[in-house]
Structure formats: C-alpha cells, structure tokens
Design brief:
The protein is an alpha+beta fold. The chain has six domains: about 160 residues, Hypothetical protein af1432; about 140 residues, Beta Polymerase, domain 2 (2-Layer Sandwich); about 110 residues, Roll (Ubiquitin-like (UB roll)); about 80 residues, no CATH class; about 60 residues, no CATH class; about 80 residues, Alpha-Beta Plaits. It is built from 32 helices and 21 strands. The strands form six sheets. Strands 1, 2, 3, 4, 5 and 6 form a six-stranded mixed beta sheet that branches. Strands 13-15-14-16 form a four-stranded mixed beta sheet. A hairpin with a 5-residue loop joins strand 5 and strand 6. About 35% of the residues are buried.
C-alpha cells in the first residue's frame, strides 16, 4: 500500500549511525515483518557512507531521499532485495561508487536493480531529450530482466515530486511535465493505479497551481453533498447484500483531482456539470459473486446501457479486471459502480507490483518476464519493437504515442482476444496475430465482411486475416499501420528481404523527382558532395534509404535547391561553392583527403596528439572523436560510418579543452592556477569556481595548441599546494537533485 511517507532525516533520527540504522529498521519491520534485517542494515550503512557529504536542495541530508524511497517500497510489501536496492538506487548516479562495488557488496541481483534505475549520464548525447530517450530505453530493457526496476523508479519519482518545491521553477516544470508525459501513463499501462493517481495529482499541483487549488476547494466544499449522494446508493446496497448473505465491502470514493480536471478540459464544462465525479467500489470474494452483485445493482437502480463494461471477461492489457456499470438513482443522481474480487482490487491498484507478489510469493523466485505473463503483453511488445528503432528521438516519440493510446478489443475466429490501440487497422491486427501473417496480408473478413488492409477496426469485431504467399510489404504500408510492432516488422522486412526492391524503388524516386528539377548538369557530378551532406557512404545505400523512406526525397531535392548548382555556372564557381559547402579544412586529413567537412566532437574535444577516429554523421560531415571517448564506443561496431582520420601536423590552430581542478580551499589558490595556465601559453576563455565544505572545484575553458602542451599544464597544476586532482572533462555539468 502506498501512503504518504514522511522524510526521515538521518541527522535528527539519532545521535549515531548505529542508532539511526535501528530506528529505520524498526520502522521497516512495523510495515513488513518479513524483511531481512541484516541486509537492510548493510544497505543503509552503505548508502549513508556513499551520500554522507551530500545534501538535497532542501538542505536536508541526501540520505533522506533513499530512506523515503525504501519506505515507499516497504509499504508496497516488496521484498528485502527491492527495499535494499531502494536505499542504494542513487549511489551509481551521484557518488564515485561503481556497479562492481554494489555487486561485490550485495550481489548481482541488487546491482542489476540499482543499475537499471540509474540515468544514462556517461554518454554525451546530442540533446537532453536524447539522453532522456536512452535512459527510458535502458530502463525498459532492465525491466525485462527484473520488473522491480520500474517499481523502484516509480517510488523514486514519487518522493521527488513530494519534495519538488525546493527546485528552480524551470526544473519543477520539466519534472512535472515528464511525469504527466511518461511516468503516469507508464504506471497506468502497468496497472499501478495508486501510483498513477498520486503522480498525476502532484504533477498537476506544480504545473497548474491555480486550477489545482480551485478543484481542491470545490471538492472540499461539496464534501457533505458528496457523502450524502454516496450514502443514498451505498446504504441500500449494503442492506440488500446482507439479505442475500453476500460477503462484500462497499466503499465510496471521489475521482482524483487531475482526473476531474481532464474531464472538465475534454468536455469543455465547468466543475458543476461533471456528473461522474463519484464512484462506488464493491469488493467481494469470487467472480460468481461479482456477477450476482451486478444483477442486484441493476435491480435496485436503472443502468445506463452504453456505460457497462465487462473487464472480467475481457481484461485490459495491463491485467485490470472489474465490472463497471453506471446507474441513475431515484433523485436523478448518476454514479459509477465498480465490482471486483479482492485479488482483482490489489492488481488494479498495484499492477505489476501485485503481479510480482502473486507470482513470487514472499520474495522467492524470479521476476523476469515470461511468455505466460499475459498481463504484461504490452510491455513485452514494447521491448520487442524498440530493437528496430535506432534513433533515440524516434524511440521516445513512439514510446509516448504508445503510452497514450486508448484500447480496443477484437477477436480471432477462434475467440482469442487481441488488444490494439484505438485507430488500429486490419494490417495491425494481422501483425499482432503473427508476423508472417502480417507480411502476406491482403485484407480481412471483419464480422463476415471483406475489408482492405487499411480498414480501421472497432472494438468487439471478429477478424479473419486473408493472406497470399506472393504478397509482400511495400513502403506504403508504413502509412497504413499504427502499432509499433507492425511498423518495426515492416521496416525490418524492407531492410533485409526487401533491400534490393528498396534500392530499385529509390532509384525510381530519384529519377522522377530530379526530372522535375530540370538539372542541366549530371546527377553523378554531385554525388560525392550529396553523400557527404546526407551522411551516407555510398550511392546504393542512399537509394536504399530513400526507397524505405528513412531519408525523405525532400532532403535530396532541398540540397539542389539550396545550392542552385546549374551547368551554366562556371566550373571554377561550382568548385568554390562545393569547397565552401564542405568546409575544406587543414587540421585533419580524412582518409588522406582534406576535401571534406570536419567538426570536432564536443563530448571529448580532441586536440593534436590525441588518438582520434571519425564517424560519418547525417548532414554534418565527419565527426572526430578521441578513441577513448565513450561515444566512440557506441559507433565502434558500425563499419559503414567509421572513417580513418589523421592529424595534419602542418596545421596551426588552437583547440578548446575543459579542465577541472579539485583542491583544498586556501588563499592564493586561484592565482597559482591561472599563473600556470598563463605561463604555459594557454588562453583562458572562461572559468567557474565552486567552494563547499572547504573544498574547491575550479573549472576552466582554455585554448591550447596540442596534447603535449596540455600534459605539461596538467603536470604543473598537480604540483600546486592543496591540489588533489586535475582532470580533463566534458563541456557540460550535470548536478543531481536526488534521483
């Protein structure tokens, strides 16, 4: 059960670490007496040691955050391993400790959980959005190995939202927006209703404070009227259940604040005109009792027929089961009734957390996804289709779209239920049944009527796929499908079996479009510069990418339109234009050729003397990295994009480098550091100083000539009194705010 956990500040809990550990363990044991006390003690001590010099934005010790996360996990009745991982979840992200340290101290299981929750920060991505996308991708893959990764992440996000008011306004907005865009819909998809509700209400509170306060005040003002309405339904229902000797609990509840706000926005109505603000939940022992109680409710009040939903017979893809019916009272009041068993209720509120508990009992066994986990079909499909999305931003876009899709339910001729997003087509259904069926689909019989592949399906239909062995996917299919699974399957086919067809299609598209441009010079004359511009290493590959739609033909025609290369222009001018466009340089030789656009990667800022490697980028020429750069490791296996580069020893240029100096604070330290830089001939572009607890972190952005000069500077800086470390860093700074 998730309740509001108050922050336990280590410095106020007790006078010593030992006392603090015992106070915390006592609190955990009060919530869940089955936990492994020794493991929790060890994890607490490790976390305390790792975070002991850190504070949160609120000024409280950083340890208060992992303590609160661990308590939230304990309240969900999770096992000792998960609670221990909650205590350690920020260690890898915010301290010098490594994954191996966690593994050696606590084993691979806890190391996997902590690593799965940790954001990707070791790679310099193009943007914050790209880092966010790769972090979510990593989290999903970790979930495939252990479901508890996402449960810990939800607890982490929940406590951060509860203490969000200490952050700057822009950071608050970013976190609250990300919560509504990603975390709350993900909690819904995984069936974790209680987590979803609190995430939404807290994010709503920070994003729209005025609207939040207005709705809260209206709810408080109408409390008496609301309770009166609930009693008019609950009291007679309880009496009837007693008469029928049915054991059931009847409780009334208002809708959550954000849910009410969304209804007001979607229906464009004021608070007073939203009639379905209330619901009564009936929880009983068995499925048979659920249907019996449904009959009783319909005998007491008139049901609204189009508002009845049987999610017991046809569960949602996240495992949710319940009967929903909306009835009209004698005084015209309208209220929704939800009827479910106790097990259904726990799964409805705690989702995969409850699923994990039911599957593993008191913590034994594994929480890895298996083919029998029907409640997690959506998650397994998501993990499968993301393999085919190499672009991080595209992955994030499809991830968000898939999260927000409403569901429809359709049936196979054998009666098997298939869940699809609203707007799904016959082709989506075919791929959902089986990939081979999708690849050869020519249409379907929908409720006995033949429909084309692009026909949109409706909930409740029975669909029989029609297929032909000779039928093959085309690029147009990407416009017909709505589900990521179908889209990735079509792309995969086009990339492999359909490669030659894509090349031929690409050639046809290029020929057709270039005719409309009325070029007076040969297309082949411009191929080298065009490939450089698009970041493609061969003409055949370009045709293939155009054929599959991965490179729109518009990017090719735009190149010619911008450059306006015509045969009437003299060859000298054309040469000048190409040289200008490609940015001919003399600092780096690319494949023994200097007639290419070259840029130095900002993630590692290579300087002459560094071992370097080049990668062909999309539209930005050759990106040069140090060979020890973490980003270089990402592309090392992509031979098509890797290119040999060497330093041109004849070039004279100054290069940017970022240095961080850590030292004990003292008078004259800054003067000594800048003197070394000045004496070595380095130009200081800018610098920052951060002092905390008698420790100083100086960061300098300097210009140098080569690596030898840099080595001499670092060596001299390390000799300065009080300096403990000098390191070459990236050009950005990321400070953690507690998860």
């Amino acid at each position: 059960m998730v309740t509001r956990t108050e922050s336990m500040q280590p410095h106020t809990l007790a006078s010593s670490l030992d006392d603090s550990v015992e106070v915390f363990l006592k609190r955990i044991l009060e919530i869940n007496a089955k936990v492994n006390g020794e493991l929790i003690r060890d994890a607490y001590r490790f976390s305390w040691n790792a975070h002991r010099d850190q504070v949160r934005k609120s000024g409280e010790p950083f340890l208060a955050h992992p303590i609160a996360v661990a308590l939230i996990l304990a309240e969900q009745q999770l096992d000792s391993v998960t609670i221990a991982a909650g205590l350690l979840h920020d260690v890898l992200e915010d301290t010098p400790f490594r994954r191996e340290d966690i593994r050696d101290a606590f084993g691979e299981e806890i190391a996997l959980l902590v690593d799965g929750v940790t954001k990707i920060r070791t790679f310099q991505m193009k943007s914050r959005q790209e880092r966010q996308a790769e972090t979510f991708r990593k989290m999903l893959l970790s979930m495939a190995q252990d479901l508890r990764v996402i449960i810990i992440k939800f607890a982490d996000r929940l406590h951060n939202l509860r203490t969000l008011n200490y952050l700057p306004p822009e950071r608050i907005k970013d976190i609250a927006t990300e919560t509504l865009d990603i975390y709350a819909p993900l909690a819904h998809r995984l069936g974790m209703a209680r987590i979803k509700w609190e995430l939404e209400d807290l994010a709503f509170k920070y994003l729209y404070p005025h609207r939040y306060k207005t709705i809260v005040s209206r709810i408080v003002e109408s409390r008496h009227d609301r309770e009166t309405v609930i009693d008019r339904f609950a009291v007679p229902l309880r009496r009837r259940l007693e008469t029928e000797k049915l054991e059931a609990t009847v409780v009334g509840r208002p809708k959550h604040f954000y849910s009410i706000y969304r209804k007001m926005e979607q229906r464009n109505k004021p608070f007073e005109e939203i009639y379905d603000l209330l619901a009564i939940r009936v929880i009983t022992r068995s499925i048979a009792d659920c249907y019996h109680i449904l009959g009783i409710i319909h005998s007491l009040w008139k049901p609204i027929t189009d508002r009845f939903k049987d999610y017991i017979a046809t569960p949602k893809s996240n495992g949710y089961q319940s009967l929903h019916t909306t009835v009209v009272g004698t005084e015209g009041n309208i209220i929704e009734m939800q009827i479910r068993t106790w097990e259904m209720n726990q799964i409805a509120e705690d989702g995969i957390a409850a699923h994990w508990l039911y599957k593993n009992g008191d913590g034994g066994g594994t929480s890895q996804l298996t083919k029998d986990d029907h409640a997690l079909t959506w998650l397994k499909n998501l993990i499968e289709w993301q393999k085919d999305l190499t672009d991080s931003n595209e992955f994030l876009e499809f991830f968000k779209i898939d999260l927000f899709h409403a569901e429809i339910f359709v049936f196979t001729p054998k009666g098997d239920l298939i869940s699809l997003p609203k707007g799904a087509t016959v082709l989506d259904f075919a791929f959902a049944v089986h990939t081979d069926l999708g690849l050869h689909c020519i249409g379907a019989k929908v409720d006995g009527k033949i429909e084309p592949i692009h026909a949109v399906l409706r909930s409740g239909s029975t669909v029989e796929v029609l297929h032909l062995a000779s039928k093959k996917p085309s690029i147009n299919w990407l416009r017909e499908v709505k589900t990521p699974k179908a889209r990735s399957a079509v792309r995969r086919w086009l990339k492999s079996t359909g490669r030659q067809e894509s090349i031929e299609l690409g050639k046809k598209i290029v020929r057709t479009r270039l005719k409309k441009l009325h070029l007076h010079s040969s297309f082949t004359d411009h191929v080298p510069a065009l490939l450089q511009h698009l970041g493609v290493n061969s003409l055949e590959r370009l045709y293939e990418l155009i054929g599959t739609g991965e490179i729109p033909m518009g990017r090719v025609t735009q190149y010619f339109e911008v450059k306006k290369v015509r045969q009437s222009v003299s060859s000298r001018v054309v040469s000048s234009l190409v040289d200008t466009f490609t940015g001919r340089k003399r600092e780096v030789l690319v494949g023994n050729n200097d007639n290419l656009m070259v840029r130095f990667a900002r993630c590692c800022n290579p300087v002459p003397g560094d071992s370097i490697v080049g990668f062909v980028t999309h539209g930005r020429g050759i990106s040069v990295h140090r060979t020890d750069c973490s980003n270089a490791a990402l592309f090392a296996g992509d031979e098509e994009r890797t290119i040999r580069v060497n330093w041109d020893t004849g070039a004279k240029k100054r290069y940017l480098v970022f240095l961080e100096i850590q030292a004990s604070d003292r008078a004259g330290l800054l003067h000594d550091c800048t003197s070394v830089l000045s004496d070595a001939g380095a130009n200081v572009v800018e610098g920052t100083i951060h002092t905390e607890n008698e420790r100083v972190h100086n960061r300098f952005k300097i210009e140098i000539v080569n690596r030898n000069q840099l080595r001499q500077i670092i060596r001299k800086l390390e000799r300065i009194k009080g300096v403990t470390n000098v390191s070459r860093t990236r050009d950005y700074d990321q400070l953690a705010d507690g998860g």
